[in-house]
């Protein structure tokens, strides 16, 4: 092959490459454009209701009856003042924080221990344990049994335990954790056993520290289910002293005449809507605040569970 | 004896599982006994075991009543809408998020689409009321500005399957996309590299490479959804519709129906509710066994058991 010929083929292949690259660019560009527009639009669709609620909670009564606005027209803190000078919001807030903290701690503790045992290769009956849980997903106990259990058999009506116990264990969370623990190298653990370490010691000193992503994920799931629970309160709690925030919100939403419930004795003319919206902001507040810290954990946690599970 | 030896050998490990074993026994297995009420006439004084057996009367009452077909059809229909719309939207979000190169934009938009998942139904309910209520609702204002007639949403059952689906998408599609996105990012870059060299356009790569690779995930998630087709989304539906009987025609599902029978002042309300719950559990068990059998045939690795 002469030098000229080589040069020619090189040139030809390069021009083909350039053509390809251009083609790729336009098709890539079109897809990217669609992606930005669609994702941007959907993100806005998800976000706008939150924004409207947030703005609405600062809007004066005279303006809010004319409908929600994207931008505040007449700024006021009256709704918050009304809500925060009542005693109910503190009581309910305390109940919510209490069940969320205590419930999540207990739930994470028992779930992680159980999931670890199910994942442990030394445990001969791990599949029996796993099926024992799985069967409850196939054949759930049903609403009637659940109601009878909590209110009649255990007698937990109007007790904080009726808010704590029902959410203490979730089969789904347990399976997510099990599939994470299965990915851990068990040699790590055998070495410790040979050294004579106690099983509990191994679990808390060796397994727990390397499982932070999945523990954080599960903790987040449990915390959200406690924080957002209203159904158990609706069924079992009539005493306003132990109704959580979500139940307080539900009561003032389902009946706008119910503002007395908030126990405010200040006389500020407020619209029911304004108070509802400020209560929503207070209820969502902690979630939004913690969200950025937790997000990097839970995406990782779910990913591990989903791909390996 | 063998069992004892195993339990003794790993006594600490079994002890660690004990809290959950006891818990699940109390909170899941014990309440299962309430299914027996379907065959009894419950009287609160005598309790579950003391109440009289009345054979199939409660079940006959449910199946000869006017409601059973309606609530069953609604449950299945709404679930099908949720599964179809949910899968398509979650898939689109995952595929398109994957196309976004701008890291900051990606992170912010992903956070925003997941956010509604973390909000309680009570709050969603409040938003829905304020946006759709009466003539002052936000949507009707927009309608009147555009020259449309206002729609009285809370009195029009026909619009609710669609509205509930939109709310379901708003709340869950972003969250559902995480699993697809996680699977997507695990695919080897080599497939796409070689496709590019062969001149495949981006859209062709998505259609001929990404989607077929995602197929098993899509199938399994869909079948899991179908397996729960007899279980209505109680939180979403009861949380938003509540006891608004004007909308029951299109929105009453088995779960909300059971809840109302349970709360009704009817003498025999517990037993009636138990009959419905039994019907639901049995149908649920049959469907999940059926779809698990289907999954086994489609993709044996993804079977549930």
UniProtKB/TrEMBL annotation, chain A:
Main location: membrane
Entry's localization field: Cell membrane
Domain ABC transmembrane type-1 positions: 93-288
Pfam name, any one: BPD_transp_1
Keyword Transmembrane helix in record: yes
Family: Belongs to the binding-protein-dependent transport system permease family.
PANTHER family registered for this protein in UniProt: ABC TRANSPORTER PERMEASE PROTEIN MG189-RELATED-RELATED, POLYGALACTURONAN_RHAMNOGALACTURONAN TRANSPORT SYSTEM PERMEASE PROTEIN YTCP
Protein name in UniProt: Carbohydrate ABC transporter permease
From TrEMBL, chain B:
Keyword Membrane: yes
UniProt keyword terms in alphabetical order: Cell membrane, Membrane, Transmembrane, Transmembrane helix, Transport
Cell membrane recorded as keyword: yes
Pfam families assigned: BPD_transp_1
Protein name: ABC transporter permease
Position of the signal peptide: none
Family statement: Belongs to the binding-protein-dependent transport system permease family.
